[in-house]
Design brief:
It contains 3 helices and no strands. By secondary structure, the protein is an all-alpha fold.
């Protein structure tokens, strides 16, 4: 990878995150007439300046940012989705089981020879516009 190829994502990172911090810093001034948020304005200026003048200097910040993103991704996929699954689908399944509902017809019937569900034949016209 050439040096220019390495600088492009760092420059994009610096400009994008710097712009976001810039918007956060001037938001109260534009919409409420309050003071600019200095705590957001300083990082915005530093990130944009580094992105334009010395993008390789953003490498440690970029690595830290990506590590934070990986950590949040791990949290989202494991904890939040597990809570959603066990907090929503498990109670629904338990209630359906208590009510005797079986939408997939999984109950065993020793008198059945096959569990295939017969469907009526359809005409060729149904295949003309499938989507």
């Amino acid at each position: 990878m050439t040096q220019a190829d390495q600088r492009k994502p760092l420059r994009s990172f610096g400009l994008l995150v710097g712009a976001i911090f810039g918007v956060i810093s001037i938001w109260p001034w534009v919409f409420h007439g309050e003071h600019i948020r200095i705590w957001a304005f300083v990082p915005a200026g530093i990130l944009v300046a580094f992105a334009l003048l010395f993008p390789t200097g953003l490498k440690p910040i970029f690595k830290l940012w990506m590590a934070l993103g990986r950590g949040l991704g791990w949290f989202n996929t494991r904890v939040i989705l597990a809570l959603g699954f066990y907090g929503m689908f498990t109670p629904i399944g338990m209630v359906m089981g208590l009510l005797g509902k079986d939408p997939m017809t999984r109950k065993f019937d020793p008198n059945e020879t096959t569990y295939r569900v017969r469907r009526p034949l359809r005409s060729k016209q149904t295949m003309r516009q499938q989507f």
